Amino acid sequence: MEMVQTKVHHKKRQVVIFIILILLWEAGSESIQYSILEETESGTFVANLTKDLGLTMGELAARAARVVFKGNRQYLQFDPETYDLLLNEKLDREELCGSTEPCVLPFQVLLENPLQFFQAALLIRDINDHAPEFPAREMLLKISEITMPGKVFPLKMAQDLDAGSNSLQSYKISSNPHFHVLTRNRKDGRKSPELVLDKALDREEQPELRLILTALDGGSPPRSGTTKIQIVVLDSNDNAPEFAQEFYEAQVPENSSLGSLVLTVSARDLDAGSFGEVSYALFQVDDVNQPFELNANTGEIRLRKTLDFEEFQSYQVDVEATDGGGLSGKCSLVIKVLDVNDNAPELTMSSLTNPIPENLPEIIVAVFSISDADSGHNQQVTCSIDDNLPFLLRPSVENFYTLVTEGALDRESRAEYNITITVTDMGTPRLKTEHNITVLVSDVNDNAPAFTQTSYTLSVRENNSPALHIGSVRATDRDEGANAQVTYSLLPTLDAHVPLASLVSINPDNGHLFALRSLDYEALRAFEFRVGAADRGSPALSSQALVRVLVVDDNDNAPFVLYPLQNASAPCTELVPRAAEAGYLVTKVVAVDGDSGQNAWLSYQLLKATEPGLFGVWAHNGEVRTARLLSERDAAKHRLLVLVKDNGEPPLSASVTLHVLLVDGFSQPYLPAPEAEAADAAPAAPLTVYLVVALASVSSLFVFSVLVFVAVRLCRRGGAASVGRCSVPEGPFPGHLVDVSGTGTLSQSYQYEVCLTGGPGTSEFKFLKPIHPNFPPQGTRREMEENPSVRNSFLFS
C-alpha cells in the first residue's frame, strides 16, 4: 500500500503568487524578480534597488525604504551605507516551499513621502542538499510460486526534498535473475518503483530472495538512498484480494472530531479458507504526517489527528488488502480536506506616525496589510474603523491600506485618539481581528491667551506702603508646553497725565500687580491701564484686559475750621443781645474735611465754656445757640471752646475758640453812661470825622476785594484780604468738600469772610460775596444762612 501527502496549500499559494507576478511583469508594472541559491550565507548581495527602481542616489534612505514580506518575515535587509539589498538569513527552500517549484517569495518595497509601492519577488533556487530516503529500511514481499512472469509488484517510494533536476529521478535494483525494476511517473509528479517478475519462482528451489533497491536523484554529483527487499516465495494461492473500486474519493471538513469515520474500503478473495481471509493495511505509512488510521478487519478509515486545510488540502492514501496466503491487492484513496472558517484575519503594521501635528489635513498615520490564511470565501476580508473618528481608511495595492486624517485636527478639542482597526472575513461564522493604536496630536500655537475677565477692578487704600501687592490678573492658554506659557506686561496708556510707570508694576510670570509708591486719594482717586498677556509660541499670540484701580480714602485729614478764623492778634467777637431768647443763633462754626465718605462726616461738641449751660452747640451743623434766657447776672464776656471731629477710624479733630460779648442792644454797644453824655457833647465833631474816615476805609477795602477776586480768577489761586480786624484764610481749599445734611461743611464754591467793625454802633455794614477758588466745582448745593434779626457788625462774604 502507499499513502501520498502533499502540502497543496503552500503549493497553490506560491503558484498563484508567481502567476500574478508574471502577469504584472508582462503588463509593464513595477514588479521585479531576483533569484538566489538556497543556503546562501547571510549578508550576500542580492540587488541594487536604487538602480533597478530608477531612483537617485540616497533616495531610498531619504524616503525611509522598507522591505515587507508576508507574515512580517524579513528575509532581506538594506545595507545601511549603500542601501543595496542583502540577504538577511540563510534560506532553506524545502522549509519555505516544500515540494513546490518554483519557490517564489513575493515582497513589496515601501517608500514614503510620497507613499509608493514596488512589487518584487525572490526566487530561491534549489541545490542538491538532500538525498532520496525510503520510508523503511526493509520491504517484505510474499509472491506465490505460481505467479506468471511479467507480474508487476508496486514498491514503496523514496522521497527527496529537493526539487527539479535535484529531485528523485530513477530506481535500480541489485543484479538478480528473477526481477527488474521500473520507474513509473505518477499523476502527482512523483516517481514510484515497480518490481517486475522476469522468471517464474520455485519455492522448492529458492524459498526466499534478498535484493537492494536504490533511488537516484538528478543532482551533480547524484545522491542516492537504498532499502532492502525481502521476497518470500509462497505456496500456491491463485487468487489475490480485489477491491470493489480501484479508486476511492472522500471529503472531510477540517474541523472534524478525532475518530470520525472518513471512508470504508472493501476487498474480497475468491479463495477459500485462510487464503480467502482478507486484512487491510495502509500502504506506505508516514507516522509523522499521517492523520488517518485503518481498521485491519473492517476496512474503516477514521481520523486520528486534527486536520488543517491551511497545511494540507488533500491526502492520497493507498490501501492494501492481503489474504491468508499472502496475496494482496491495492486501491488508492484521495481524501480532500474541506476548508472551514477557523482562521481569523491578520493585520501587519508596516508604518506608524505618532504623534501627528494639528491643523494639517490628510496626514498618513499608518500603513498596514491584512491577510487571512483560509481560502475561498473565507479568505475575503473587509477592513473598517469607527465612524465617529476623523480618520479614513484608503485601500492601496493588494491588501495594503493607509490610515489618513479626514481633515485638520484640533489638539485643544482632543489630544489623543484610540483607533481600533477591525478586520473581518466573509466566512461563516465571521471571524475578526482588532488592532488598537493610540494616536497623539502634537500642539501648534493657534490659541491666544485669554484673560479670565475682560476687565478687573482693584481697590487699594491710600497711604499704602510701596511695592504693595494690590491684586492679580490671570490669563490661560489652551495650547501646551511653551505655547501655553504666558508672560504679562503693562501696555502703554493713552492718558499722558497718568504716570503709569511710576504707579504700578506687574510680575511677568504670574500677573501679580504691585503699587510702586504711596497713593494719595486726594490727588488721584482712580486710574485705568491695560495689561497684555502673550504666549511663548512661534509666532507669539497675545490678548489684553482693562484694569481699573480705585484708591480708597483713608482718614488722614483732620477737620479744618473755616469760621470763625483764629487770629491771635485780632480775635473775632460775637455780639449777643441780653434780650435774646433761648435757642438764639449766636453763630455757626463752619469746618471742612479733606477726606470723603464717612471720614468727612463732621460732628460738633462744646468742650469748654466760661459759664456752662448758657450756650450749646448743635452736633450736626455747628450752630452755636443760647441754651436759656439771658439775665443781667450773666457775665458780659464769654469764651467758648468748640471741638470739631470727623467720623473716621481713628477719628481726627480740631478745636476753635469763640468770644461772645453780651450787649444790651446792637445800636449803641459802646455808649458811655448817662452822666458822661454832657462831657462827650463837645467832641461830637471829631466823631463825625471818624465816621467819614471809616466809610472811606470800607470803600477802599471793597475795591481791594474786587481786585483780589480778579487776581484769583486769573491766577487760579485762592486768597482773601482782611477787612477791619478779621483776617481771611488763604486758599485754595481742598476740591472735594461735600455738604452733608447741614453739618457745616462748605462746598468748594464759596469762602466766607467774617469781620467785626471797630467803629461806633451806628455804623453797620453787611456784605455777601462769592469767592471762586482754583479747583473744579462739584455739583452739591451750598447754603449760607443770615439771620436778619441779629444786627451784629459782622461782614460775611
UniProtKB/TrEMBL annotation:
Major place of residence: membrane
Keyword annotations from UniProtKB, A to Z: Calcium, Cell adhesion, Glycoprotein, Membrane, Repeat, Signal, Transmembrane, Transmembrane helix
Coiled-coil positions: none
Annotated Cadherin domain residues: 135-243, 244-347, 348-451, 452-561, 576-676
GO aspect biological process, one term: homophilic cell adhesion via plasma membrane adhesion molecules
Subcellular location: Membrane
Pfam families: Cadherin, Cadherin_2, Cadherin_C_2
The keyword Transmembrane belongs to this UniProt entry's keyword annotation: yes
Highest taxon in the source lineage: Eukaryota
InterPro entries, A to Z: Cadherin-like_dom, Cadherin-like_sf, Cadherin_C, Cadherin_CS, Cadherin_N, Protocadherin/Cadherin-CA
PROSITE patterns: CADHERIN_1, CADHERIN_2
Chain ranges passing through the membrane: 689-712
GO molecular function, one term: calcium ion binding
GO CC list: plasma membrane
Start and end residues of each stretch annotated as Disordered: 776-797
Gene3D superfamilies: Cadherins (2.60.40.60)
Topology versus the membrane: Single-pass membrane protein
Protein name, entry field: Protocadherin beta-6
Naturally occurring in which organism (per UniProt): Neophocaena asiaeorientalis asiaeorientalis (Yangtze finless porpoise)
Gene name for this UniProt entry: PCDHB6
